[in-house]
Amino acid sequence: MPLRMQADGLPISAIGIVAAAYGLGFSSGCFLAPLFIRHVGYIRAFASLAAIVAVLVLAMTQAHSTLAWALLRGASGMTFACIFTVTDGWISARANSSQRGRILSIYMMCTKIALMLSPLGIAFGNIRMDGLFMAVSAVLSLSLVPIAATSTAEPPAPRTVRIRVRALFSVVPSAVIGAFAVGLINGPVIAITPVFGVSIGLSQDKAAALLFALQAGSLLMQWPLGWLSDHSDRRIVIAGLAGATCLVSIGILLASMYEAQTLLLFAFAAWGGTALCIYSVCVAHACDIVEPDQIVSTVGTLLFSWATGVTIGPLLGAMAMDMIGPDGLFVYSAIVSIILMIFVLLRIRRRRRDPVKGGFADIAPSSSAAVSLTPRAEAAHAAASPGAGGSPSGQSETPATVKPITSP
Questions:
Q1: Domain segments of the chain: what residues?
Q2: Does the domain made of 2-149+163-350 have the CATH classification 1.20.1250.20?
Q3: Which one, out of 74, 373, 394, 399, has a CA that is 20 to 30 A from the CA of 293?
Q4: pTM (two decimals)
Q5: Alpha-carbon distance 118 to 111, whole Å?
């Protein structure tokens, strides 16, 4: 999209406005998603949203002004926020606490692979023509097939549909602040990294390679960190990743100072393996604490916190670069990361949480008979202690069991 807008003669300021429109639309979509899912269910929500965004992508082929691009990009941001809420909520609702970190890691790995491969697709079409947009629209339409044809039961519709940042903060403050901080640093670093690379003397292709290194590092670390978070207090993992992000940010500053290009590439991969992996651990941590029917609202709230950070972060990162120079971007990253680490460590000191326990969830095909969504280990625990389910107050680590539902 930026290349297409540039080819149409739009200035850089217009491209920035369109990027801000996406963040604004995404934030708005976080409020709408839980209500929409409650009204129509996961499958119908995903199907209708994928169809809408496919049409929006096709409409972008006819956009020739800043206003048109901003409106379409804002609408797509709103739609994608709903799609991500559907996906994150479905996965988190069906995964058992002891496996949630690893399952979310697999999901994030698929995302990282897409982010690494998609820019290469530009070579298969002319940016001034409509073929690339048509290809994206086709892929979005094909994403309907596995969802509409699934034989497994969708999770029950969420009971809580509001975005409640303050309420969720009172239960899992580390997850809310973590998601916000991730947006604060990931947004500007991903958006400004090519500019940073060129500013320190790299060629355009080498500056673009820094983005590839970010996503490659994140891809490699998603699964190990998911496994680690499943066997420990997830807040320790969040704090450790934040501290590592601070150290790697300092390493990037040193590598750029000494013009060590190979070391810089590895440093960016390490940064991606730390900073870009924090969000999924925050989601897993929050979903461990809240009740199952509050997971969609929880995921939407965390997405909103992240989107707020992404909206503010690029402004702060650019301001740091204006004040300090190119190195200001990673000075800013180090400061935000160390603040997050200190906050989470204080929370760990104030309240101890045991590692999550449990087994695989039973995922049965949908049929005319009732489908049980209750994990085996948690069902046995609930039978022995009916009041042991999770609560919004966060007093129990074990999520409440979900009553069987009958598929239509």
A1: 2-149+163-350, 370-406
A2: yes
A3: 74
A4: 0.65
A5: 10
Alpha-helical (H) ranges within 149-172 are 165-171
For residue range 165-176, what is the model confidence (pLDDT) as tens digits? 888 888 889 999
Question: What contacts 40, CB < 8 A, 6 or more positions away?
Answer: 48
DSSP class of 95: S
Residues in the chain, how many?
A: 408
Six-digit token string for 371 = 């489908």
Residue 12 pLDDT level (bands cut at 50, 70, 90)? low
Which pair of structure tokens corresponds to residue 370? Answer: 């009732």
Q: Using CA atoms, how far apart are residues 15 and 376, in angstroms rounded to an integer? A: 51
pLDDT digits (tens, 9 = 90+) for 346-358: 998 887 765 554 3
How many Å apart are CA 402 and CA 290, to the nearest integer?
A: 13
Q: Which of 41-45, 186-190, 315-319, 395-399 has the lowest mean pLDDT?
A: 395-399
> Dihedral angle at the C-alpha atoms of 71, 75, 77, 83, nearest 10 degrees?
-170
